[in-house]
Design brief:
Length: 110
């Protein structure tokens, strides 16, 4: 599953659900940086990692669902995000990533 380039031109897009797709090979940092994005669901996509070039998250992104993937780590840039809800359940973490402790806006973690 490759996202059409049109998606990245949707400057007012607020909710994006990519769950249970094969997006993993085409997941780019640009998805996390859509300017008005509030909710992003990329659960059950067999992700092993998030994009290496992910140096910041859109300031509007408050809900990130990463449920049921194969993640073992998160990019350190997540610490600067404005996430309020983060779902990391059913992944391969052996411990809670330290960078999560720096997300001051976070109030719900799964």
């Amino acid at each position: 599953c490759k996202l059409p380039r049109l998606v990245f031109r949707l400057q007012r897009l607020r909710h994006l659900d990519l769950s249970a797709t094969s997006i993993r090979a085409h997941l780019t940092a640009a998805i996390f940086q859509l300017p008005q994005l509030i909710f992003l669901n990329i659960s059950s996509c067999q992700l092993i990692s998030l994009p290496n070039q992910l140096d910041h998250f859109a300031p509007t992104l408050t809900e990130l669902i990463l449920y049921d993937n194969q993640l073992t780590s998160l990019p350190s840039s997540i610490a600067k995000s404005h996430l309020q809800f983060l779902d990391l359940s059913k992944n391969k973490f052996t411990e809670v990533p330290r960078c999560i402790c720096a997300i001051h806006s976070l109030y719900k973690l799964h």
